[in-house]
Write a structure and sequence with these properties.
81 residues, alpha+beta, two-stranded antiparallel sheet, 5 strands
């Protein structure tokens, strides 16, 4: 489960409750995406939940991490003629 915050009040039909604006709530990522999609399709409102528990800069750390199988500069074979 993930932590989210909504900029507006909405009713979760499957959850059977009303989620207040700007109050944290816990929900699966898949269900949060489903709600946002349904609100867009039914009401033409772009509802974007704020993810509260997402690790910051996680993508940057993965991109900058050295690849395990990448050759190192010292490991390169020199061409001998």
């Amino acid at each position: 489960m993930a932590q989210f915050k909504s900029p507006m009040k909405f009713k979760g039909i499957k959850e059977g409750k009303v989620f207040k604006a700007n109050e944290p709530f816990e929900m699966s990522i898949k269900r949060a995406e489903e709600i946002q999609k349904n609100v867009k399709e039914n009401y033409d409102i772009d509802l974007n939940f704020e993810r509260l528990d997402a690790p910051e800069n996680n993508d940057n750390e993965k991109e900058n991490a050295p690849k395990e199988n990448a050759p190192k500069e010292n490991d390169k074979k020199e061409d001998k003629k």
